[in-house]
Amino acid sequence: MIVINDSSTDRILELLQNVKDKRLKIFSYENGGLPVARNRGISHAAGEFIAFLDADDMWTADKLELQLAALRQHPEVGIVYSWTSYFIDGQEESIFPYNPIFFESNVYDKLLVNNFVANGSNILVCRKAIESVGEFEPTLKSCEDWDFYLRLAAKWHFVLVPKYQILYRQSSSAMKSKVEFMEKEALRVVERAYQAAPPEYQFLKKQSLAWVYEYCT
């Protein structure tokens, strides 16, 4: 477990001092933002598979176990994802599942239209897949996970664990509450995606833009 302390202002370092486990690695940096923090985690990772868990999200106890099994059952696949539920900050008993989807194999066109993976705490990804597409785009301040997933989907197949395993926290202070900011960064992701997309996918751009504005609404 690699903890990237991105100039946190909570008690994370104090709390982690009580965890006596040599598998826990802690690295502290000046604030670089979410994509930079994830990239720093990648740089320290030594494993064949990498997963990301943002500070305000949670996994079910079987998340890694079932995702790893799915990747091993499908060695041609580079990424596995699960279904997401969300809850309101401070109300963990109020769980609201997102609509289940069943996209697998080549999901590139589906992911162009909307980020069905839903958040950055979802995937388990092979290191070789990351190495083939590069890390998170450090200039993006939001929607960097969608950009990353799109680059992966252009080269790799996805597989699904059809189970709600990601608990995504929503709060008034969260990034997704800043609608104008989210809109700006999401539109940047769309432009980046269609600059790289083959000609046969260009007709989907209006659908992608429609999803962005629906999401912001």
Automatic annotation (TrEMBL):
CDD domains the UniProt entry points to: Glyco_tranf_GTA_type
InterPro entries: Glycosyltransf_2, GlycosylTrfase-like_prok, Nucleotide-diphossugar_trans
Superkingdom of origin: Bacteria
Start and end residues of each Glycosyltransferase 2-like prokaryotic type domain: 1-213
Protein name: Glycosyltransferase 2-like prokaryotic type domain-containing protein
